[in-house]
Specification:
With 186 residues, this protein is an alpha/beta fold. The chain is built from 6 helices and 7 strands. The two termini are 22 Å apart. The protein binds flavin mononucleotide.
Length: 186
């Protein structure tokens, strides 16, 4: 199963278009499962509210992950391949995607810690692709907190060996040829 995490939030999103172009080229033969974050009610971990940090920590301590907030992590762990698409916002990820990733990063569901303190992956995925578009020019990699975060999680927690970045830059520049920039990104 290829899990497509769609964190595109605008109508006619160029990032979503690039993601769908990538999917077409990928020609994945298995099942495609799409999670459209704008259609879900994803709450962050908070002191109060639907997803409390107390309930989260109690589940991690007991191993009883029956709260609905853990559905995203369970599905993520089962995916054979993952594609995440999100626009580049303020040198990072849209908050909604951060909320989703916060829940996906549940110890005991997508990763665990062994007796030496090292992270062990509980994810099946061997390949993760991050698709993005940005209005401006590509920043210095140390300022790219969008792919930077995704790459760190995919490497450190989930041990995904093949991590790819498909990004189109400069889409909001004067006279930008958006179609050509998207095609070049592929
Ligand atoms: C809230 C917000 C923050 C943005 N931050 C950046 C930024 O830090 N750097 C940049 O190059 N473009 C930035 N942009 C421009 C978007 O990255 C660009 O328009 C992108 O192509 C939007 O993708 P979409 O068409 O899929 O919505 C920002 C746009 C918005 C709405």
């Amino acid at each position: 199963m290829l899990l497509f995490v769609n964190a595109c939030l605008r109508e006619n999103s160029r990032t979503e278009r690039l993601a769908r172009m990538w999917l077409e080229r990928r020609a994945y033969e298995g099942e495609l499962c799409t999670v459209t974050l704008s259609e879900l009610d994803i709450d962050p971990l908070e002191a109060t509210g639907p997803n409390t940090i107390d309930a989260y920590l109690a589940a991690v301590a007991s191993g009883a992950y029956d709260h609905p907030m853990f559905e995203h992590a369970k599905a993520f762990a089962q995916a054979d391949e993952i594609m995440i698409a999100a626009p580049f916002w303020n040198y990072g990820l849209p908050a909604l995607l951060n909320c989703y990733l916060e829940l996906v990063c549940t110890q005991g569901l997508t990763f665990d810690v062994d007796e030496t303190g090292a992270y062990m992956s509980l994810c099946k995925a061997r390949r993760l692709t991050f698709v993005s578009t940005a209005g401006g020019a590509a920043p210095d990699p140390s300022d790219d907190h969008a792919f930077g975060k995704v790459r760190t999680l995919a490497t450190r927690f989930w041990h995904i060996p093949r991590i790819e970045y498909v990004a189109a830059w400069g889409l909001d520049g004067p006279g930008a040829d958006v179609e050509a920039l998207l095609a070049n990104a592929l």
